[in-house]
Amino acid sequence: MDQNTGHDHHHHHGHPAGHGDTGDAPAAPAPPAAPGTVYTCPMHPEIRQDHPGHCPICGMSLEPLLPELEEQENPELKDFQRRFWWTLPLTVAVTVLAMAGHRLGGFGMATQSWIELVLTAPVVLWAGWPFFVRGAQSIRQRSPNMWTLISLGTGAATAYSVVATVAPQVFPAAFVSMGRVAVYFEAAAVIISLTLLGQLLELRARSQTSAAIRSLLGLAPRTARRIGADGQEADVPLGHVHVGDLLRVRPGEKVPVDGTVTEGSSAVDESMLTGEPLPVSKRVGDRLIGATLNTSGALVMRAEHVGSTTVLAQIVQMVALAQRSRAPMQRMADRVAAWFVVGVVGLALLSFLAWGLFGPEPSWVYALINAVSVLIIACPCALGLATPMSIMVASGRGATHGVLFRDAAAIENLRKVDTLIVDKTGTLTEGRPTFERAIGHGGFPDNEVLRLAASLDQGSEHPLAAAIVAAAREQALALDTPTRFESGSGVGVQGVVAGRSLALGNTALMQQRGVDVAPLAPQAETLRAQGASVMYLAVDERLAGLLAVSDPVKATTPAALASLRQAGLRVIMATGDGLTTARAVGQRLGIDEVHGEVRPADKLRLVEALQAQGRVVAMAGDGINDAPALARADVGIAMGTGTDVAMNSAQLTLVKGDLRGIATARALSMATVANMKQNLVFAFAYNALGIPLAAGLLYPFTGWLLSPMVAALAMSLSSASVIGNALRLRSARLHQD
User: Fold this and answer.
1) Distance between CA atoms of residues 194 and 91, nearest Å
2) Residue 591 in contact with residue 392, Cβ under 8 Å?
3) Considering the chain, what is the average pLDDT of its residues?
């Protein structure tokens, strides 16, 4: 699953597995063949390349699309650490010299300028090199960003100081103070050191956010115990498991990949993926999810999904995609930043000219200092971090609560939702029909009705049939094999059992066969009013009885609906089930707006109709039939217990299919948006307060000037405060308790 193993199955000698098995996750491309990792920009997910580098738009360093399990030191973090620590002593030395050199020095001031030049050169040229590269890139790409400002500012300060040191005679006499032309080496050095420090903090914080994904990746076991064709067992690396392999899962081990039980029975703890606290019992034929924990019994399973198609891999891809995608707020911040940079460069030029022409002597020196200060304090480093940091922390936080956001927009939009449409089967209810009761008629005892229906239904694929057969087996009734069997689409099944002609189905089927259902109609109506599905059984064209099957409501549903109503949401139920059943369930759950017998296209229309009324609609569903409506809703919410199609069309997946997750997700959405707004305020406040100071607007009144170093410090502080504030989301309260 990590990138080294997730694709071994693509190039094994002619093994059929692994080709085309990545097709059911359009949400994210499968990891490419090793060793090529795809790198992308945390802010501009559209940038993709096969080698590390910098984003051509914002200059940030690219990072792998899917983090590796073994935490790899970010090469850029290592590089920046080296640049920062090696040049820090030089920066300190230059600063001390600049502040107090004339008191310490036995050497002349001109010599001191040369010493500062020698000390500063490595800081600017080596430590600051990445910043100049990114600055040049931003100008070439015509997308001004913070690196434009930093490289302009430090470049101008350094260039001016070098000229002042090497050829002081070109400056007018007014520029000479204390025996030399003033230089600003220390400002350039300090700014570069502080910017590096800001970058280190940011890269560290970014590596923490992928911890959520790494903890998910860490759930998968490293090896699987494969049973060979000759019955020999061997432990093989997870990447060598193919579709169709038989694997042994011993008690206490993790299930290696997704598949089906072929022998044995056990209880499996699936809480790590679904959050479902109780272990789920598994028998032959039941589905197993990779990375869940086998508790008590020994199982043999057949692998069905491996590598990047397992449930775990798809969850990891969704979290990675959410962390990479950009919130609408972020796009706004990007646009603002580009204009901001242009405005700042203009302001810097203005302040340069104003001071140069009208300022006190040495006016052009003041002009330069103030222009550089403006460039540096205005640098919106923090602006670039403001929204992605919150999104990354929030999507990681959501994942640990079984709530997966598909993209940043979903996190941002969920808080605006005021109407929730829920599907009944599998969303409000368990989605697994259970047999309720059989009622005999015309001399047939109740259990004989069940026995005959179950005998006929052995050939049927329908879930209702499965419930009837299971109930008959539990009561240890002896079933006959039908000699003829046909299932009429949607109305029921017919066939011959032990020489008798049987028909099992709804009223329509009975009418087709000319069977009168009137004697049992009142009982059928009562059962339907309680939310059960009713089927009639006819033996040799005579009514023999009825069977009721119902789909129990999930235990968590009432509490979930209560918390959603409390949050002010209007809840509407839309189901393909009959109206009577739908109303019965709606009544039991206190949902007054119920739409029954709804086809997928009707669900879509319902969403559109509500949107036309100006409501912000979320749709929660679990099936293929919900996919169009999920995709059309403002926020589609899929049950993780449902189908892949639903998850791929939804922006939010509740891994455990528990509606309480919607309330959690909504609380998280509100906390995140509030957090982003705070971050944007932090990011802009420092800059906005600093710019007039830096431009020297207050000088005439207060004599205050902002030195470029203080400007650089303010810039780093704004980044640090944004990061700190975003990390607060990790412990935000999410439950309305």
Assistant:
1) 10
2) no
3) 78
